[in-house]
Give the backbone structure.
Amino acid sequence: VVSAILLFVFHMKLNKEIEHDVKYMKPDSGIIKEIYAIGLPAIIAQALMSIMVYVMNLILKFSPSAQTAYGLFYKVQQFVLFLAFGLRDAITPIIAFAYGMRSKKRMQDGIRYGLLYTIALMILGIAITEFATLFNAGQSREYFIGAMRIISISFLFAGINVAYQGIYQALDGGIESLVISLLRQLIIILPLAGIFSLF
C-alpha cells in the first residue's frame, strides 16, 4: 500500500513528460479484463504452492519424521526451482515483446534458449542435490536423503514446466499457464502422494 501511495505521489508531482490530470484516470474495463486474463491465473498459480505444502503435510501426518523430511526437501526444491522461476521471469517479457512485434523467429529463439538455459540450470540443481547430505535430523535424515535422490530427478521436468508457464503467459495464454500449474502442484501430485502414503 505504501509503495502504491508513493508511486502515485511521485507520478503526480515529478512526472512532467505526460499529462496526468484526474480526468485521464478513468478505469477501462477492457484493459482491466486483459490484465486479469493473465494476472489472475498467475495469482492462483502462486497460491497453489501453499495449498500443496499444506495438503502434503496432512497426507504425511502418520509420521512426524516424514513431515520433517518433506519440509527439508521442499526447501531444497524451492532453492533449485527459484533458478527456474528467475529465468521464467526473464524470458516472459522477451517472448512477449517478440509476440507483440509479430516476430516468429524472435519468439522461437526466446522459447528455444529459455528452455535450454532452464534445462542446464535444472541439471546443475539435480547434481547439487544428489550430493547434498548436510542435514542430520535422525530418522528424518534417512527419509530426506532417500527422497531427495529419487525426487530430485523431477527438477528437470518441473523446470521445463515452470518455463512453459512463462511462455504461455507471454503468448497471451494465462489459462494454459494455470492448467500446467494445476497439473504439477495439485491434480497429479496430491492423489499420487495419498495413494503412495498407504504403502
Notes: The mean pLDDT is 85. The first helix runs from residue 2 to 14.
